[in-house]
What does this fold into?
Amino acid sequence: MVRNVAPVMAELEPEDCYLLSGIEQGMRFSEWVARQKLPEFSRLTAEDVDYRLDRCEDRGLIERKTIQYEGFKLTFEGYDALALHTFAERDTIRGVGAPLGVGKESDVYEVQSYAPMALKFHREGYTDFRAVAKEREYTADRDHVSWQYTARKAAEREHDALETLYPDVSVPRPVDQNRHAIVMESVDGVELAKAKLTDEQVVPLADLILRQLQAAYEAGYVHADMSEYNVFVTEEGVTVFDWPQAVPTDHANSDDLLARDVENVLGYFRRKHPGVIEADAERVASLIVEGAFDSVGAR
It folds into this structure.
């Protein structure tokens, strides 16, 4: 788990951020950035680089290796610090609160702003960025792929999708994006996987979710990673979140991915409430493509 770096931010000086930015720039070319390159990348003197390296390493923002040559790289905490610094400069957020959710590919925190917001750090590639890179189209044309690049591209992709979909589709309203982080509207609700439903509620709720997929398709996107873990059930209806793997509808496999999304949704309800939904997933997906979906209860 990546440590919440927010408490460290008050201790950082501008030159610390210059150093972190310099290491970030160097990591575009190699996993470890040679020490002698840091004055050039950070625009600090060699003496100031030495001082800043110790400060940032003590705070867990960078790692050092001394095999073959002395090199440095950002930790995810260091990358978080750069994103938080940028959001603070933009006055997007004024403080970071409690965690809202911690997962394998993202961490989400409540944040202080002009309204309740959520801050999502993408963690794609944190444990094995090579494996993730093979699964993500946005890294397919890169020879050198770092976790830093993978996580940033995931955030950019999700933010682009949210900006396109909101407000016609019930998704969190996007507010700002920097590096691997997105600030978005906080959603009050219960994860579908944790919602306690009666059989009578299943068809209306399934219809609400599938109509959002139809609205997203009409707006030009397929979610491509639907499950009971990325739908919030709210008092107003449903909100669909987690869009980093979304694909445009002109993608060669978009209809297949849509059919898989529909099967994932219907499959969840069938497992939890056997016999309530009999609709065929491929038929429902075809209706969504045609803009003709109405209800899984329709004959």
The two ends are 48 Å apart (CA to CA). The domain at 92-185 is CATH 3.30.200.20 (Phosphorylase Kinase; domain 1).
